[in-house]
Specification:
The chain has 32 helices and 31 strands. It is α/β, with parallel strands linked by helices and 955 residues long.
């Protein structure tokens, strides 16, 4: 091979670097192409599941061996455009290389003021060579050029390709050397000249684009693929090629091994439910129904499981995903949740599940959200992976367990854009939704999800914008052979039909006509059609919840009694744990403050001495999202330990654990952070008026576990705070509620609940949800003022839904069946880091009030410190600095200060950090305050961040 290669062949460079003595060195272009081809081949052999390999081959209309070779070739040839004058003769190139290239005629007489991107040159130069050398049809060749030319995340557009001149690409010797590169790579990987791709629809195109990009990332790591420029210059092209080629396969396998990218072990068959979850006494009825359904499903499938909280939906989803892996080869899953807090809790549950399921294998599990780096459990798994995967000869940390079995978190996958490539992941739903938004390398995210199982929890929690994006994601997952499991406690029928229809569209057929059974139910879609069946809830889930309307209005007089405080104190006189769920942070802070005199002592100076429960913790506690991250994490863990399942075991020091008991008496004031996915159990629930589906969701935290209840709280009871009414009888919901929930939904929820003294679960869930969310006309019996409010807010919600759907459609990628060219998929790429944080920009995956993340420090902007006394200065470049700064961060949404903060620039030193570049710096004074525009922000030790218009505030 390579006997007729031109002498200039190995002078073309792909990568530049400096040697040990500072001398310039380079990696020849042909070597890099062979490296990346070898990585793609190794990924096919050692990473892709048999099911995924079969899907790729079928999509290309090739047999598997031929598809393997073609994919290796396409990955390798991605950088063909570097064999052009604009790239080779750029200013950074070593003069000695330029001189030698010039000697061989590889030159360009006129300077190129704006050299074209090499990916664009690849997309232009490759198609005619594929037609000439491999006899591909012109449309297929052109499409392949666009696919591999987009390896830097953006597909070349037709306008830019048309504007490329032959002179910019390079003619004569340049064209000759590009042809030589193609011929050499064809021969090296053994591409068939007779069996060639015949079709390339959008799903296979985006899958290939993702695979090529990932192979290029790995093949570009000099640690695994040492630069060979020195040897190349000293050797003849043919002898150098014969020497280098055998090394590429070894280098690729070593790279995958050190990155921790290993194939999942072959399944030994499906495991029974009891073996997967040995801690459960027996499967619940919902779980048994899912196990029976598993035998009937052929992937890819969509299953929607609607059931009340506490029915074991999480275990059912994990069982179904494991069955799909064991029986159908759908290896790996991503578990998507609504928030970072719920993701952190689920991460541990999934890790425990994988350790049981694969006791003799090393399993890569990633945590994906903007603050994943601050998770202590995730950090331990990262350290374990570092110890296991580091190259030979490096001393290992003796305190880190390195047994080659169990769960770890390989470091390479923790970087932005790579997390979904890991076999298993837990994180926010935002990370998955980014796969269908126009972002750079969005197709890598799609490729990461292809062929797996995606589990989305709390589907009812997503607004119109996010649900619209979810519908597009379902289309794409179906087209990519990915099965999906959606979990929801409550779901309006209209939304259910849209979700089923979206997945059906991805499979290639229209929305199924389906007669839905009553709630709770299972619904599913496969290529064979759609169906649904009713579910029998567990006996313990069938219950009547007493409803009591209480006075929750906070008196304007700070010294006036707070009726809710007196009511709670009376209700808990004989013990019990209550939760008060407020709709906004400001109300949660105010309610907590007004409850202090009822569960502690407030001195004349305002100092609060809390009443202590028998677990040594204060009876009264507060949890919301406006604490510094480190403080919120402490509070979240405390809440989970106190109000989770009985007998929580916590680690207090390495090798030391203690049992946490449920307190005899406690009141937790919280926002919505406790209503989703967290396994919490309270004896009494107090809630603001909220959308009826979320009222039922909150009720799911009431009497969740089997245990003895205090006297007077044996029957599950919810207190709903009565809204004030204006003179016409129209409810006046809490200040700020309209920014959290739609007023029309709040109003209709109040209407269906106001006369209720009890709720039957699950019987009342669907009728009430439909009564609130369907498109029925205003009841004729309502007073005129209420009818007018109905119509006004209805018009507002219809307009809002229209706008949110429009926003989603403006940002998402085309559907899998679109007739548009590939470049339209990335024509308006947007920033995509930490999407769920809304940091300093309108979040891609969520529509909400503008938000800005801040870091609270002391000292001065030029010399910030972590403490008031200046003993802990912020030293830039210090190890773990980003982590320590993020621990002191918080996201703010208050309109009074956000606009001012957004006008500030992040500190210059932070702008180069992916974790910090959107954060603003706040320097607190000795009283933990800082002025922002006309307002004051205080870091309060009990309340978290408080914003007021007074320098000292009222607290």
């Amino acid at each position: 091979m390579g006997d007729s290669l031109p002498e200039s062949f190995f002078l073309l460079w792909a990568k530049l670097a400096r040697g040990p003595a500072g001398e310039p060195t380079f990696h020849p272009l042909i070597c890099h192409l062979l490296d990346v081809a070898a990585v793609a081949r190794a990924m096919w052999d050692h990473v892709l599941s048999p099911r995924m390999r079969a899907w790729l081959a079928e999509a290309l209309a090739l047999d598997e061996d031929t598809a393997r070779r073609w994919i290796a070739f396409l990955a390798g040839i991605h950088d063909l455009g570097k064999a052009s004058p604009g790239f080779q003769l750029q200013d950074d190139a070593p003069p000695v290389l330029k001189d030698r290239l010039r000697a061989y005629g590889l030159w360009f007489s006129a300077p190129l003021p704006h050299p074209p991107a090499h990916g664009l040159v690849t997309a232009k130069a490759l198609p005619p060579l594929l037609e000439l050398e491999l006899k591909l049809a012109a449309p297929v060749a052109s499409r392949l050029g666009t696919i591999v030319g987009g390896h830097h995340g953006i597909f070349p557009c037709s306008k830019d390709l048309s504007a490329l001149t032959p002179q910019a690409i390079g003619t004569g010797p340049w064209a000759d050397v590009r042809l030589a590169l193609v011929k050499t790579l064809v021969e090296a990987v053994g591409v068939s000249r007779t069996a060639v791709p015949q079709r390339l629809d959008h799903p296979i195109a985006l899958a290939l684009a993702g695979l090529v990009s990932v192979a290029d990332w790995i093949g570009s790591v000099a640690e695994y693929f040492p630069y060979a420029g020195t040897e190349a210059v000293a050797s003849s092209p043919s002898s150098m090629l014969r020497t280098y080629l055998p090394c590429t396969a070894e280098h690729a396998l070593r790279a995958l091994d050190h990155l921790g990218w290993r194939a999942l072990p072959l399944s030994d068959g499906p495991r029974p439910f009891g073996m997967l979850f040995p801690g459960m006494p027996s499967a619940r009825p919902v779980q048994k129904a899912v196990a029976l359904l598993a035998d009937q499903l052929s992937p890819p499938f969509l299953v929607i499981l609607e059931a009340p909280t506490g029915e074991g939906k999480t275990e059912a989803a994990l069982y179904l995903s494991d069955y799909a892996a064991a029986v159908h080869g759908q290896r790996g899953f991503y578990f998507a949740l609504p928030t970072q807090a719920t993701s952190n809790q689920m991460f541990k549950r999934v890790g425990d599940f994988l350790n049981r399921r694969y006791p003799t294998a090393l399993i890569n599990l990633q945590l994906l959200h903007g603050h994943a780096a601050l998770s202590a459990e995730f950090e331990l798994l990262r350290q374990r992976a570092d110890a296991l995967l580091q190259p030979e000869g490096i001393a290992q940390d003796p305190d880190v367990t390195t047994t080659e079995a169990g769960v770890m978190a390989a470091g390479w996958f923790t970087h932005r854009k790579r997390g979904l490539l890991a076999p298993f992941g837990v994180g926010t739903v935002d990370q998955a939704l980014l796969a269908v938004l126009q972002t750079r390398h969005g197709f890598v995210r799609l490729w990461g999800l292809a062929g797996k199982v995606v589990i989305v929890d709390e589907v009812h929690a997503y607004d119109t914008y996010m649900t619209t994006l979810l519908e597009r994601l379902l289309e794409w997952l179906a087209a990519l052979g990915t099965s999906v499991i959606l979990l929801s406690a409550t779901l309006p029928r209209g939304r259910l039909y849209r979700l089923l229809g979206a997945y059906a569209h991805g499979l290639g057929y229209s929305t199924p006509v389906l007669k839905l059974p009553p709630y709770p139910r299972l619904s599913w879609v496969t290529s064979a059609g759609a169906d649904a069946s009713p579910l029998q809830p567990a006996t313990s889930s069938v219950r009547t919840v007493r409803v009591k309307w209480v006075e929750g209005t906070i008196p304007a007089d700070h010294h006036a009694p707070f009726p809710l405080g007196a009511d709670l104190k009376t209700a808990l006189a004989d013990g019990g744990c209550a939760v008060v769920i407020c709709n906004t942070v400001a109300r949660a802070q105010e309610v907590y403050w007004r409850l202090r005199p009822y569960f502690g002592t407030v001195g004349p100076d305002g100092c609060f001495t809390p009443e202590l429960a028998d677990d040594g913790q204060p009876v009264l506690d507060l949890l919301h999202a406006r604490f510094l991250f480190k403080d919120r994490e402490v509070r979240e863990k405390r809440v989970l330990q106190r109000f989770g399942k009985a007998g929580s075991v916590v680690t207090v020091a390495p090798g030391k654990e203690r049992l946490v008991r449920r307190p005899n008496r406690a009141v937790l004031v919280a926002t919505q952070v406790v209503e989703q996915s967290l396994d919490l159990d309270f004896d009494l629930l107090v809630t603001d008026v909220a959308p009826v589906d979320l009222i039922f969701q909150r009720i799911g935290r009431l009497h969740r576990h089997e245990r003895r209840r205090p006297p007077g709280l044996a029957m599950p009871t919810v207190w709903i705070c009565r809204p004030a009414l204006d003179a016409a009888g129209v409810p006046q919901f809490g200040r700020g509620d309209e920014h959290v929930y739609d007023p029309h939904v709040l109003f209709r929820s109040w209407l269906v609940l106001r006369d209720r003294s009890a709720l039957d679960v699950p019987a009342d869930i669907e009728p009430l949800v439909e009564e609130v969310y369907d498109d029925r006309p205003c009841p004729s019996g309502l007073p005129e003022a209420l009818r007018r409010y109905w119509e006004v807010t209805r018009e507002q919600i219809l307009q809002a839904v229209k706008e949110e759907r429009g926003e989603a459609r403006a940002r998402w990628i085309r559907g899998p069946a679109s007739s548009d060219a590939l470049w339209h998929f990335t024509e308006n790429p947007r920033e995509d880091d930490a999407p769920e944080l809304h940091q300093a920009y309108q979040a891609l995956t969520r529509l909400s009030e503008p938000t800005v993340a801040v870091v609270c420090l002391y000292g001065t902007a030029e010399h910030p410190t972590f403490d008031r006394r200046g003993r802990e200065p912020v030293l830039h470049g210090a190890p773990d600095l980003a982590r320590r700064l993020l621990e002191r961060s918080v996201a703010l949404t208050d309109r009074r200060v956000v606009s001012v903060l957004l006008d500030q620039e992040p500190p210059a030193a932070w702008q180069m950090s992916a974790l910090l570049r959107h954060h603003r710096l706040l320097i607190l004074n000795e009283d933990d305050r800082v002025q922002i525009g006309q307002y004051w922000l205080r870091l309060h030790p009990e309340l978290g961040i408080v914003i007021s218009d007074e320098p000292r505030g009222s607290r």
